[in-house]
User: Fold this.
Amino acid sequence: MAKVKTVFYCKECGNESPKWIGHCPGCGAWNSYVEESVVVGKDNKSVKKSITGETKSKPIPVREVSNVKEARLDLCYNELNRVLGGGLVSGSLVLLGGEPGIGKSTLLLQVALNLRDKKVLYVSGEESAQQIKMRAERIGINNDNCLILTETNTTDIIKHVEETLPDILIIDSIQTLESAAVDSTAGSISQIRETAAEMNKVAKSLHIPTFLIGHITKDGTIAGPKILEHIVDTVIQFEGDRHYGFRVLRTVKNRFGSSAELGIFEMNANGLREVSNPSEILLSQREEDVSGISIAATLEGLRPMMIETQALVSTAAYGTPQRSCTGFDTRRLNMLLAVLEKRAGFRLSSKDVFLNIAGGLRVDDPAMDLAVVAAILSSNDDVAISNRYAFAAEVGLSGEVRAVNRIEARIAEADKLGMEKIFISKYNLRGIDKSKYNVEIVAISTINEMLRC
Ligand code: TYD
Ligand code: MG
Assistant:
């Protein structure tokens, strides 16, 4: 006989404990345990209902494994295909995470409507069929192969999937699903764990690629435990400032490709539009040169991008100067300011410094450093930097200009956009054939050297 038992789960990592504890031994979080009741079988393990029969598995040597290339489905959007590692792999389970209102439902509905010759089952536990229809009308594509199902019970969903056998299954969202095998409310950790496992079984046994939409908590992690990330094959995350039009799709984990990929979309009145050449929109169309602006040749994943960096340096109105960043690490800015103060003799400690990365993007690339330094000095001295100059190098604590990875991709992008000069580290010069590019490569080894250029 199955009976109901109370267990405690860590909200952060999904660790299980028979009694409440204040400090999670799994992830170190404090006060993260919540009580949930689960149905347990005779052997005291949580009951797992098998969806399809057991597979007849057998161990085989690696050598004998046939290396057929997994079939990939083209999702009509190159930006999405790239993030998935070149298309959607048959039978894979993909988790799409993002804050509420960022456009997760819009993106997947758009994919479903665009795939005219594929049958897509869009299961929604969040919105009514009418609301989805309104969104579809806004996107403006008609497609009879896109089926909508508003259901949250996994047994019913699986039944419909087995009947319709869609080419793609979309679940919006995993937090709304409920499995009869677990006796707790939708969105609880044991429900998320169970329903995700059931969806994984469906995807794998019927070879239906499945998208799970998942909400993200304030601190940027996927609501529900890390366990969800372990179950799925691929985790992609939709990011961006809601007040800007740009949305960045980032690979967090991918069993079928690189996890350093990135796709860019723009939210318009009629859905999301792909941005295939980001550099052109990230550089503002300014007529004359204004001080405090420099262009960084950064790399997001494997993709080179020119991003405008804006700085404003002004005399502090109050005693303590302010340092504020949008899209860049404030600690890194403080470090660069200290380097400028100590190694190049600039008096910045009594100045307010504001830094902004254009387009609402967040960049972690160390090669941003030189552009940030250039923008700060340009604003401080009120001298404009030509908008045909690009920067790509890291700045070290002693004011040295350090080499960065994949410099040739950055130079090639600057060249493609018709830049006049690109400032890089002297240590990056090795093996670069300058004659290949029209852009002039200026190699420097310290920030003081850049000031003389
Ligand atoms: P939505 O896809 O519902 O976000 P999520 O599923 O991630 O919660 O919608 C995102 C927002 O985008 C919503 O506030 C309305 C807006 N939007 C547009 O600006 N244009 C459009 O064509 C659509 C469909 C939505
Ligand atoms: Mg939604």
